[in-house]
Amino acid sequence: MTTVLYIEDDANNRLLVRRILMVEGVQVKEADNARDGIRMAIEDPPDLILMDVSMPGMDGLTATGELRKHSQLSNVPIIAVTANVMEGDRERSLSAGCDGYIGKPIDVDTFSQQVLSYIR
Predict the structure, then answer these.
(1) What are phi and psi of 119, to 5 degrees?
(2) Which region, left, alpha or beta, applies to residue 88 given φ > 0 means left and ψ of -120 to 50 means alpha?
(3) For the chain, what are the domain ranges?
(4) Are 21 and 10 in contact (CB under 8 A)?
(5) DSSP bridge partners of 52
(6) Residue 79: phi, psi to the nearest 5?
(7) CA distances from 92 to 33, 61, 63, 75, 112 (A)
(8) Yes or no: is domain 3-87+99-117 CATH 3.40.50.2300?
(9) Is 60 within 8 Å of 82 (Cβ atoms)?
């Protein structure tokens, strides 16, 4: 079974993503902050990490940099999921070590295929 770790501080966003991906048979693990997400990823590497960029405490781009320091996560795609959709935000996410970028609000019709394309 494919496992996705979603690191996101907003409970409503986590619920939406979990429901969308569960329909596709994806197991979704959740962390409501970057530090817990990093710990969870190191302890049990998922197939993919969805990373909210704007979180209190440690932001998602900093967390991505921390995750990239761990060799057991080197092949795990990290996808920025963010409402930051201004010019340059995609490039900043990719420069920070993300493998992809999905803008919010999430399009429920295409989201699961966008996510799964990074795994397959």
Answers:
(1) -95, -40
(2) left
(3) 3-87+99-117
(4) no
(5) 81
(6) -115, 120
(7) 20, 8, 13, 20, 23
(8) yes
(9) yes
Please give the pLDDT value at position 85: 62
Rounded to the nearest 10 degrees, the angle between the axes of helix 60-67 and helix 34-43 is 20
* Measured distance CA(20)–CA(56) in Å, rounded: 25
Residues in Cβ contact with 35 at an 8 Å cutoff, skipping those fewer than 6 apart:
57, 58, 63
Query: DSSP letter string over the chain?
Result: --EEEEE-S-HHHHHHHHHHHHHTT-EEEEESSHHHHHHHHHHS--SEEEEES--SSS-HHHHHHHHTT-GGGTTS-EEEEES--STTHHHHHHHTT-SEEEESSP-TTTHHHHHHHTT-
Low-confidence ranges of the chain (pLDDT < 50): none
Neighbour tally for 52: CB within 10 Å:
26
pLDDT digits 0-9 by tens, 30-49? 999 999 999 999 999 999 99
Q: Rounded distance, CA 6 to CA 50, Å?
A: 5
